[in-house]
Amino acid sequence: MDYKKIPYYGLFAALAILMGYVEMMIPIPIPIPGVKLGLANVIVIIMMYFMDTKSAFFVSLIRVFLSGLLFAGFAGLLYSLAGAMLSFAVMALLKKTGKFSIIGVSLAGGIFHNVGQVTVAALVVENVKMAYYLPFLLVSGVVTGILIGIVAKTALGYIKR
Questions:
Q1: Whole-prediction pTM value?
Q2: Closest C-alpha to 85, from 72, 99, 68, 71
Q3: CA dihedral 101, 32, 35, 72 (to 10 degrees)
């Protein structure tokens, strides 16, 4: 383990938790449950490109668990974990191919985060009709994924300087 990276892990984990908290404070005027900005994903994507995928994975996992315990409760933790892990897996695979930009990776992350959450919601309530939310959530995932990708790309440019 590279001990010089440990302060970065703590800093990025704290930033991701803070971004998740800030996101909870921002009212979203859309009457569809589950639509969020995904601000904490800015930090995860920055870590994927600034450090490495393995580090980003562990910080994402820590962020999901701590944010879930602090702000969301067990159900929120379950949905967030499903969305975050599926989203992360897809983003890591796309990044590894080298064929997608940071914005494209983020866009896919936004989409698959929602797919993971709707899948778990359908399993928990034992009702496939939860899939009716998916088209609305996919649109929001595309929009927020692009925005998060742009923010991460811009921030990464400053960090690398």
A1: 0.85
A2: 68
A3: -150
